[in-house]
Amino acid sequence: FLTVTRLTIVKNVQTAIEAVRGLPGARLVVAGAGDERARLEAQAKGAPVTFVGPVDEAEKATLLRDCRAVVYIPMDEPFGLVALEGSLVGKPVVASNHGGLPEIVDHEKTGFLVPPGDVQAVRTAMGRLLQDGALAEGLGRAGQESVRHRYAPGAYVEKLEQVLAEVAAA
After folding, report:
1. pLDDT for 99-156, tens place per residue?
2. Rounded Cα–Cα distance for residues 104 and 145 (Å)
3. What are phi and psi of 134, to 5 degrees?
4. What's the burial of 127, exposed, middle or buried (CB within 10 Å: 0-12/13-18/19+)?
5. Among residues 91, 119, 96, 123, which one has the least CA distance to residue 107?
6. Which candidate among 50, 88, 98, 137 keeps its CA 20 to 30 Å from the CA of 111?
7. pTM (predicted TM-score)
8. What is the DSSP code (8-state) at residue 167?
């Protein structure tokens, strides 16, 4: 599993660490930097967690390619580029069920939406993806198709034109 984020309290890496700790056979790779790194590394002692620090785009692409799924469960996220990037490369995403993330992740269709502070819900979602490779691949393919359709330049222009027409009519 992979999480790519700033290492701050609101990005909620601490919950992902606790979720993977109780999941046999799972490993979490944490990419990113931030003021909480030392605290998170101390919390992760004895857990199957690897901190790789900040990564460039090429390194991130490799990490995304090699992971089973992306775990991105921030407490507050207006959009969620990490979820979009994971979906774009065909990886299912375990994401927070609030903010902008439900616009990217369709629960049980392209990944799983979970309450961000609920360790057991995150662990359950990760466990399903770990145990069922076909499920993970299917969700990843569906997410990739969804992102390509929803966020393609043509789709964006069409949606903008629709919004502008509604505003003009009002």
Report:
1. 999 999 999 999 999 999 999 999 999 999 999 999 999 999 999 999 999 887 777 7
2. 11
3. -65, -40
4. middle
5. 96
6. 50
7. 0.89
8. H
